[in-house]
Amino acid sequence: MKKDTEESTTESRMLEVIPQVAKNIKRFAEHVGMTPETFYNLKAGGKFKLSGTTLEKIFTAYPQINSDYILFGRGSMLHPSAGFRQAGIPFGMAEKEEELPDDATVLKREVQHKQEIIQHKNEIIEAQSREIALLREMLAERKIH
Question: 111-124 as b/e, with b when 16 or more CB fall inside 10 Å?
C-alpha cells in the first residue's frame, strides 16, 4: 500500500488493483499473457513502466479494471458493473459457484452503469450546447457592432 507522501503512478495503482482481480501476481500475469517477473519487478520498486501495449493486454484480459483509475487515478479501481467485486468476491477468488452473482444481476449492474454513463454524457452535451449557443450570440453581437 502506498504512503500518503508517495506519488501515485500508473504502476502503483496497477499493483493496488491486482489483488482485487486475481489470486496472486502469477495468475494475473498468466491471464494477461505475460511473465510474472514484470509485475514482481514493479512490486519490488523497479523502474519498469507499463507500456501502452501492456496496458491494452491488461484491460483486455480484465475488462472490469477501470482504466481511468489506472491511468489517471480517477474513480474506483473497478467498474461499478463488476458484479463479482460488488458482491465482495474478487475475481478468481470464489470457492464455489453459488458465491457468484447470477448473470442477470451482473447484467443489471452493467446496464445501470451504462445508463449512468449515458446520463453523464448527456449532461455534458447539454452544457456544451448551451455554451455554443452563448458563444454564437456573442459572435453575432460582435458582427452587428
Answer: eeeeeeeeeeeeee
